[in-house]
Each structure stands twice: as structure tokens, then as C-alpha cells.
Amino acid sequence: MAGFVERRRWDLLIVLTAPPHTDDTLTTVLRLAQAVLDQGRSVRIWACGYNTVLTQESLGDKKPGNLLAPDREHPSAAGLVRRLVSDHPGRVSWIVCTACSAERGAAHHVPEVRLRSVARLAATMEAAERTVYIGGF
Amino acid sequence: MPYLVMIDRGYRGTAEAQFFDTLYGMLTFGEQLGGLDVVLRGSAVTAAVVPEGERPTLRVGSLVLENLPDPAESVRALLDAGHGVAVDAPDLAEFGLGAADLLPGVRCLDTTRLANRWSQYDGVWFL
């Protein structure tokens, strides 16, 4: 008797396409994801466009030093994503679009993120109870 | 004459930029360039408004970011360093605000009139 694969369901998928360092979209996405997690629910973030450069290993966990306040430490965007994933095991997934990543030469990502082909976008949306698309190309 | 610097947009990435925003760049460049006249327009005008309420934080998992961008602090630092800061009056009015809402030392004027003085600056930057 053939078995059936039970696909994992997610409460929310956020498709993030607005570029970072231009407005507060990434901040909104982090706040939204954290609010969903605080409710005990699960969330996936699909990072497209220039958001794919935010999780490169070369960024490290901390930003470069603040020349005007050298005693302060600031986590990098990669560090924030790592913390978001590692602090909520099994309930959050940060997906990086392979096409956008390759287009921008973002080759080496932190181990907490998953690379996924743009051809899987519809399937990823299908696996979510709700999808929120934030941004534009 | 120093450089004239126009900044038209604020809020360019709280989480990813943190301290590394346009005003931070001006604070680090200003002395090298021999002084700045910074003009805030568009959504950037709010950087010079007297802040109200508690400073916002951002929580990501167990991490709480308490040193998010503080534009008002940066404007004060520019003034303390001897740079000029002006806000575009029409753009400020778009937010329902006026000169009385600005930090001490910030000028409020119709910045289109500054075009008549561009030739007097060593450079005019649009950031």
C-alpha cells in the first residue's frame, strides 16, 4: 500500500521583496514574525531581491563598529535572522530565493536559512494558511 | 563654504541600519569636508522634531535592540559639532508640524530658496 506524504503546514508565509536599507519593511517583517511566534504559531519568511544579501556568512553576527559610540554592539541582519530562527526551533523558517541570491552574488548564507528555487514559490504559498506579500520589485 | 547636503527620506532600515544611517554618515564626513549645512526634506524632516514618548525597541527572539536609530540624537550631535541643520517648512507642514516642534537650533525655512546659494558651496549633495 502506497504511503502518502503529509506536507507540513505553516500558519503564515511572509514574502519579503522590498529592498533593505530603503525603508522599514524588514523591521516590519521582523516585528510581524515575532508577534506570530509570540502567539505560539509558525511563520515562514521568503526573502527575495536584495534581502538575500542580508544573510550572507561574511556579515558575521555583529555589525561593523560604531565609530561614534565604540562601546555599543549592534547585531547584523544575519545575526538577527539567526537569532529569530534559533530561538524558535521548528516554528520559523527563513527561506532565501536562489535566483535572487545568485543574481546578486550572495553565495554563502548562514546555516539557519534555507535556499529554495523560485519555482517552489507557489508550493510554499500552498503550504501556508495565509500569505502576506510585503514590498515590490 | 561648507557642503550643502539635502536628505529627502528618513527611516531607511531600522533593523538593518541601526546606527549606520545617513545622519551617521554626515557626522563622520562633516569634519573631513570642512563643515556641513544639512537640509532635511520630505519624510526626513521628522528627524529634527522634538521626540515624544519612550524610545522604541525591537525584539527578535531573546534579543532586544535598544540602540535603534535615534535621528533626533543625530541632529543634536550635528548641531553640537557646529554644522547647520535646516528643515523645509512646507514639508514639515505636510506632517501638521511647525517651527515650534523642532529641536533648538534647527532652522525652518523654504529650502527651495537655497538654490540661489548653491554656487557658494564647495559641493551640493543629494542623499
Could you please describe the fold and organization of this structure?
The complex is a heterodimer of chains A (137) and B (127). Chain A has a single domain, classed as DsrEFH-like (Hypothetical Protein Ychn, Chain: A, 3-Layer(aba) Sandwich), CATH 3.40.1260. A 5-stranded parallel sheet of chain A has the order 4-3-2-1-5. Chain A contains 4 helices and 5 strands. By secondary structure, chain A is of the alpha/beta class. The model of chain A has no long low-confidence stretch (mean pLDDT 94). Helix content of chain A is 26%, strand content 18%. In chain B, the strands form 2 sheets. A 5-stranded parallel sheet of chain B has the order 6-5-2-1-7. Chain B has a two-stranded antiparallel sheet with strand order 3-4. Chain B is built from 4 helices and 7 strands; from the N terminus they run E-H-H-E-E-E-H-E-H-E-E. Chain B is α/β, with parallel strands linked by helices. In chain B, 22% of the residues lie in helices and 22% in strands. Chain B has a single domain, classed as 3-Layer(aba) Sandwich (Hypothetical Protein Ychn, Chain: A), CATH 3.40.1260. In chain B, helix 2 packs parallel to helix 3. In chain B, strand 3 and strand 4 form a beta hairpin. Chain B is globular, with a radius of gyration of 15 Å. Chains A and B meet through helix 1 and helix 2 of A and helix 1, helix 2 and strand 3 of B.
